[in-house]
Amino acid sequence: MYILLAIIAFGILIAVHELGHFVAAKAFDVKVVEFSIGMGPRLFKRQKGETLYSLRALPLGGSCVMEGEDEEVDDPRSFTAQKPWKRFIILFAGSFMNFVLGAVVVFFLVLQLKGFVGTTITDLSDDFPSFGDGRLEVGDTIVAINGERLYYSEDFSTFMSLYGSGPVDITVVRNGEKITFKNAPLYRRPFVENGQTVMRYGITFNLIEPTFAAKVRFAGYQTMNFVRLIRISLGQLISGQAGIRDLSGPVGIVSVVNEMGQSTEMTVREKLLNIAYFFSFIAVNLAVFNLLPIPALDGGRILSMFLILIAERISRKKVSPKYEGYFHAAGFILLMGLALFVLINDVLKIVGNG
């Protein structure tokens, strides 16, 4: 059931993305040749007016094929015949729709929360350590770890997990003044709670009343924090802290959803809420990823569009759209190669864990 749920969710993400392109294209009276969900052979198709609507076998992609998208045609309604700002909006609309979908899902999930936890310290364990040049105190608000801004206690947990293998720089606000403790040796330590040993830092943070305004702020923050986490992940890939084998595609994501569904520690309602939260992150991830300046992606098309405009201004000659088409076709082949690698990697992970 959860595998099917994940596949349906993927279909929704793809449909929403392509719908963004489709609606923007129709709004500017651009001719849409085909609007399809999925890849591979067609399972269903229907011609309505000038547009062919189709559902394809593999729920791994989709397309909104516009007239003259990668070639110059003698049609004033073709994509390449439109002004640059219109083409930008059409290309940007897919990612925008995915971002909005992720934000809406997060908002409805946040409405159910009974409260939030901030980063102002309300209690410290009796044996909480000093840092050599100072010590955290009750009333301090932790605002950054290694330069990364904190807003809620979840941020503290996230960045301590990320940087906590060694001393960290902790910035706090105390009586309106910022204080930074350099190389603070802050680690999890065993604490006995209700007869059980748990690993904690020995810090208790303030509770935030769940007013409607607080929920709106938290939902907006959470959505934007997804973008920050994606930025950090990309930085780790570039720096080598994470490798290409750490990437996961649709198969890996479906596997994660299935693991959530098989958990015996959560109710069905809790599982569904966690899966919805996970897919809100995937929706924002998809929005950001598609805007990266990579050939064949929307971001690559936006970048190449502006580079061509600059080249035409300098050379005073029109660049044929077919060259841009060649560029994106080569990028698409490389992207499919990466997708195949990630697919094989996901399968090997599943087989290895099995």
Helix content: 40-55%
CATH superfamily caption of the domain at 116-208: PDZ domain
Question: In the CATH scheme, what's the topology name of the domain at 116-208?
Answer: Pdz3 Domain
Total strands: the figure is 10
Give the percentage of residues in beta strands: 15-25%
Task: Record the strand order, biggest sheet.
Answer: 5-4-6-7
Report on this structure.
This protein is an alpha+beta fold. It has a domain at 116-208: PDZ domain (Pdz3 Domain, Roll), CATH 2.30.42. The chain is built from 8 helices and 10 strands. The chain has helices at residues 2-27, 84-110, 153-163, 212-239, 250-262, 268-290, 298-315, 321-353; strands at 32-48, 51-66, 116-124, 141-145, 148-149, 168-174, 177-184, 189-193, 196-200, 203-208. It has a 4-stranded antiparallel β-sheet, with helices on one face. It has a two-stranded antiparallel sheet with strand order 1-2. A two-stranded antiparallel ribbon has the order 3-10. Helix 2 (84-110) runs antiparallel to helix 6 (268-290). The longest helix is centred in the C-terminal third of the chain and has 33 residues, at 321-353. It is elongated. The two termini are 19 Å apart.
